[in-house]
Amino acid sequence: MRDVPSSSNTSSSSKVTSSTKVTSSFRSQLREEGRQLREYLELQRDDNKYPIMLPLIPKSKFPDKFPDETVTQSELKEINQQKEYEAEVEVFHALEKMVDSDTIIFHGFNYTAEQYGLFVLDEQGNPIKQQGETDFIIVHRLLGVSILEVKAPDFKEVTKHEQTFRRNFEDSEKQGCKMMKLIEERQNFIQHHSWTILSNPSSLC
Fold first, then answer.
1. Which of 99, 109, 136, 195 is most exposed by smallest CB count within 10 Å?
2. Residue 49, pLDDT above cutoff 70
């Protein structure tokens, strides 16, 4: 006697098929838009020796200066975020000076949980929804993709150096892994690497 699939299995299967079709169509659209974007940017550049930077200049996220008086806990968090952003800007300017026309560099690449779920699925074919941000994605025509996370930890408390370093490194690794997973689901044959840049190692001395 032939087995008849249950309605729940059939429903699950149709869900996966539908999700796969949507994702495939969306990927094709992104691929075409990416190709057109690269062609447009290459035409706009006066000198094609250097990487394509997206955005063309880093955008300021924080106030230029916080008050000198005692700051609140919320402001302290923003000050630390500003230090990290200033470190990102330094890295941005270093990267844009590379002599390599086969490279596109994305700075401050944000993604929503819904966008992430369009590409990354669990074993049952359901979207894994995670939101996040990657400091730099370096895409090279021949060498693949590199993920850079920039950290500017405060090492003022000598007794907490190891704890501070570990916390920043683990946070960087977590963000990098999410983006690597997204890349693997997009094109698993591309070489990809993840790196953490520590902006102020001299403060450990």
1. 99
2. yes
